[in-house]
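Readers of this paper often ask what the protein records in our data store actually look like. An entry from our holdings is shown next, in its original layout:
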Amino acid sequence: MKISPLEVLRDASIVAGKDLRIEARSKVAINQVLPFVLAVVLLFGFALDAETSLLRRVTSGLFWVTVLFATVIIVQRTFAIERSDGVLDALRLSGLHPAGIFLGKVLSLVAQLIVIEVTLALAVVVFYDVSLSGGALLATTTIAATVGIAAAGALYGPLAAGARHRDTLLPLLLLPVLAPVLLASARAFEVALGRGVGGGWQWAAMLGIFAVVYLTLGVAVWGPLLEDS
């Protein structure tokens, strides 16, 4: 039975809306992830207080490392809730298309990560005295990297949720996969902020390819993955 792209997008909006309502009630991002992000920024500021120029140089890498750690927290929490409450079983029986479920998960993670990234960017500007420039490259890099990170998180989240040592397994699965995202996004940010060499748009293109690959992979395998989780 064929399903139209519009039906997949409808299913994705249903799943994304459900996940965001759960987040609005549990407030994991606000009560746990945002304080963690701000703590990382402050700790690095205290550690390198006398080296403001060094803080500016490491801003790009620090920004994306913090985003990756925040992603692990959000993904772990999301799939732990779903597994403990039997939501994954309900999704299997819901009649929603697996591709729509996967894309809904991605949309939900993207929305939460955008909130984290905006907060983190404001903290970096305030505490590290960083001047933002290269707006088009920064925005493109952020969008491509966020979609890629969310797609990988939505793909590996259910794998780790069903494992015995899931609290430690997800970082071991997810962080090595996201190493290219960290590299490319940090380099693109350095170019956009005027502290890097070479072309930042090539790095942004690499992030776009990564996002497309993981979106395609997730759409293809999320059906069997959902059945086995």
Summary: The mean pLDDT is 84. The first helix runs from residue 5 to 26. The chain has one domain: 5-228.
